[in-house]
Amino acid sequence: MHRILSGFVWLIILRCPPGEAQPATDAAARARELHFSSLVLDTHVDTTSKLLSTWSFVEEHASGHVDLPRLKKGGLNALFFSIYVPGTVTGPEAVTKALERIAAVHKLIEDLPGEMALCMRTSEVRAARRQGKIAALIGMEGGHMISNSLPILRDYALLGVRYLTLTHSVNTDWADSSGDRPRHNGLTDFGRDVVRELNRLGVMVDVSHVSDKTFWDVLEVSRAPVIASHSSCRALADNPRNMTDAMMRAVAEKGGVVQINFHRGFLDNAASEYERRAGPMLRELLSREPETRDYQAAFQEIRRRIGSPPAVSWERIIDHIDHAVKVAGIDHVGLGSDFDGAQMPEGMGDCAQLPRITEALLGKGYSDSDVRRILGENTLRLMTEVEQTAMRLRDQKSAATGK
């Protein structure tokens, strides 16, 4: 056997002279160096609910998508922890549960002072990066958690919330969702006030999950660029959660960023159709224990009922990134994985696989600078512009009132 292997090795060497075999190795090394020297920022990670249990963030797990060891393996050095409470939970109960989740993120960071830093501003993300720490930010997934109160929204901002997804999969009292029947024809007057207050606070307005009419209302009202924290391209996967080309161009014209979602049903039409069938079953199964949000168990039960979903490759993520860049421009595309809140495509089983994206983009001819923009710099530029808009609005108010 040794002689056979030796002959095979020599055959490879003869057919692939060193000068020809080397570039593949160099390309992989270059991609790895670029990835791990870049700011890699994911704008939507649903790991937060696990922090309320005995689950350990610092241990590497065989299930799920995110924990500290895998963050390091994947070079994910900045992430938005999503604050999620089901849209059917409203009023004081929703506020209490939201505060519990925000507190859990704060506690995690307090327990890991050498590993993570709570960041509320762009400068703090940069500082965390220089210190070799993971920048932890907070996003809120669903406007129902403000309980129709601007003072409560202000309190969330003080606690570190840096984007508000205006709706989740059901309408709020003031905005229509892409997952529900229209009730308000987009934003109500109070919904417009929410957008204005977010601008004033320096909190990003997130248009993922909203209805198309709500989206266009937001673009009309907002003085600051907006974010789609975890949405892919409707031209490639016809799902109402995705962005049309016209929407992506409008986000770009306003200076915003579309963060590509890795969920298989938002990447592929066949997978999207499967989910249309599975959706009612998923809602039924998750409603039994909404606090645990045990997606994996729910998906297993759905497979038992209607079979397995169609295969979707992680390379579809690259297709969506590439399409969004062609439509919106290189400065307006980022990453919003939906890790721990969705089904990942094959080959992107967790955050440790993120370096594949960098290597694939380089392989398609993207420059180092372009890749850095997509990995995180575009999002940080957006955050900076939102912060600057808030300062301008406060200055204008001070000048008008003399205070």
Fold and architecture overview:
It is a single chain. The chain is of the alpha/beta class and about 400 residues long. It has one domain: TIM Barrel (Alpha-Beta Barrel). It is about 50% helix and about 10% strand. It contains 15 helices and 9 strands. The strands form 2 sheets. Strands 1, 2, 3, 4, 5 and 6 form a 6-stranded parallel sheet that branches. Strands 7-8-9 form a 3-stranded parallel sheet. Helix 9 links the parallel strand 7 and strand 8. Helix 2 packs across helix 14.
Biggest sheet descriptor: 6 strands, parallel
Tally of discrete structural domains: 1
Order of helices and strands: HHEHEHEHEHEHEHEHEHHHHEHH
Overall pLDDT score: 92
Euclidean distance between termini CA atoms: 86 Å
Strand percentage lies at 5-15%
Uncertain residue ranges: 1-22
- What's the total count of β strands? 9
CATH superfamily: Metal-dependent hydrolases
Number of helices: 15
Reported by name, the CATH topology is: TIM Barrel
Overall 3D geometry? Answer: globular
Summary keywords:
10% strand, 403 residues, TIM Barrel, six-stranded parallel sheet, disordered N terminus, three-stranded parallel sheet, alpha/beta, 9 strands
